[in-house]
């Protein structure tokens, strides 16, 4: 782990899910997200001690495990306070909800009961509004709603830097995942538009490096979403299909190979988000036929 500077008082630790480090008063720091697990938390504390920095808080951008998995370890070993939005707080404290949500709301298969889906539960000390200002050790942070990727997803702004969580992905990450995971496509599109109107020196995504030209990366993210949308519609142009068949068609169109069962469930959820969105726009509709749910294009 290394500590990289974004401004005089704002730093980040590059990792699979970046962790923000903000100097408050004295040697106290607030963290933006906590990484995947206790191992991440342990390495994080070791790095901070090297610089004689002491964490007092974690602000979670959202409840996905790679962003809050270190919470419990940091609470136990460093007595940090956890800050999260109302929705995120529920899942951070009861992470099985995330696992159930990927398996139709019922007890999930073992594949969905691991640290990548279910973080160690941790008590949230301060439930924050999705928009507003909070103060930690004399440092003021602005919380900005950035929904779409997950319910209750927020960005955290301080000293000209916006920690964006998963509100956008780097071009490298997008080229790898092909189908970005978002739960609400309409909200995600509005969030991307919102980012264009925010005035910050640096935008830091959780997956990728610092961005100064937000317009270019927003354009790339919008293009990635549209590509999936079009693939869903093209799948239905000739005939009605089940969700499974649409998913297979979209993966083929985007040259994406599902690696394992865990990856399958993530992609299935992501495809459902597009089906829901296109249905809400009246572009497609669904019906039950031969004991299966069938999707079809609305002919105009």
From TrEMBL:
UniProt signal peptide: none
Superkingdom per UniProt: Bacteria
Family matches, as SMART domains: Lactamase_B
Metallo-beta-lactamase domain mapped to chain residues: 16-207
InterPro entries documented for this protein: Metallo-B-lactamas, NDM-1-like, RibonucZ/Hydroxyglut_hydro
PANTHER family according to UniProt: METALLO-BETA-LACTAMASE DOMAIN-CONTAINING, METALLO-BETA-LACTAMASE SUPERFAMILY PROTEIN
Protein name, UniProt field: Glyoxylase, beta-lactamase superfamily II
Annotated source species: Desulfurobacterium atlanticum
């Amino acid at each position: 782990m290394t500590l990289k500077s974004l401004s005089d008082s704002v730093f980040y630790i590059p990792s699979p899910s970046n962790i923000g480090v903000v100097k408050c008063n004295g040697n106290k720091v607030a963290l933006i997200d906590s990484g995947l697990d206790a191992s991440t938390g342990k390495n994080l504390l070791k790095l901070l001690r090297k610089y004689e920095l002491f964490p007092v808080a974690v602000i979670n951008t959202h409840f996905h495990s790679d962003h809050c998995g270190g919470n419990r370890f940091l609470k136990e070993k460093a007595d940090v306070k956890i800050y999260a939005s109302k929705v995120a707080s529920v899942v951070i404290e009861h992470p099985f909800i995330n696992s159930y949500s990927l398996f139709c709301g019922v007890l999930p298969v073992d594949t969905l009961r691991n640290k990548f889906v279910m973080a160690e539960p941790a008590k949230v000390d301060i439930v924050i509004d999705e928009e507003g200002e909070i103060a930690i050790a004399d440092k003021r942070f602005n919380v900005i709603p950035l929904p779409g990727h997950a319910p209750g997803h927020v960005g955290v702004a301080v000293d000209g830097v916006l920690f964006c969580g998963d509100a956008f992905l780097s071009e490298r990450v997008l080229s790898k995942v092909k189908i970005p995971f978002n739960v609400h496509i309409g909200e995600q599109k509005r969030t991307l538009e919102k980012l264009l109107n925010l005035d910050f020196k640096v935008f830091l995504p959780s997956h990728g490096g610092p961005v100064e030209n937000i317009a270019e990366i927003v354009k790339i993210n919008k293009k990635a979403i549209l590509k999936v949308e079009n693939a869903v519609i093209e799948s239905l142009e000739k005939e009605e299909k089940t969700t499974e068949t649409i998913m297979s068609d979209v993966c083929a169109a985007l040259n994406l190979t599902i690696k394992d069962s865990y990856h399958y469930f993530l992609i299935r959820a992501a495809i459902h988000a597009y089906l829901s969105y296109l249905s809400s726009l009246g572009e497609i509709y669904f019906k039950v036929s031969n004991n299966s749910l069938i999707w079809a294009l609305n002919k105009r």
